[in-house]
Amino acid sequence: MLVDKFILPEGKVYMCGHSLGPSLKTTSGAVAGVLQDFASYGVSSWNKSGWIDLPYTLGAKIAALVGANPDEVIVCDSTVVNLFKVLKAAMNLQKGRNIILTTDDNFPADLYIAQGISKVKYIKTDEIYENIDETVAVLMLTHVNYRDSSVLYQIP
Length: 156
Fold this sequence. Notes:
Shape: extended
Strand order of the largest sheet: 4-3-5
Strand content: 5-15%
Structural class: alpha/beta
Helix content: 25-40%
Number of helices: 6
């Protein structure tokens, strides 16, 4: 039975299934294996233990769940973490430019990330072109409205 694979609080119904969900009984052994690999190989563990390929290996295993081919899915950081990384990298490439230009209807979490990285200038969707100048390092747009799934605009 699937439930027997987890460590569950006795006498309780545990309905939490996200990152704070119940631990598998095999977790401590898996963690010990990773620690042993690191102790044996150090940073070389990324290649010797195959860690470097795990995003692709895991993606291939779950691809069928979303109707994709095994080479079309990758497991990686969250959208929020990836947005932070791409905005930081883009800002670093644009020396002398310090503005992240975005629309005022962008997803709130995306705006918080941008605010933590640089100055943010908020505009209306129809004001994009006239606001791109030598101070703008990044134009951050959202194609689909997070509130109702409508397409916000088409870039010609």
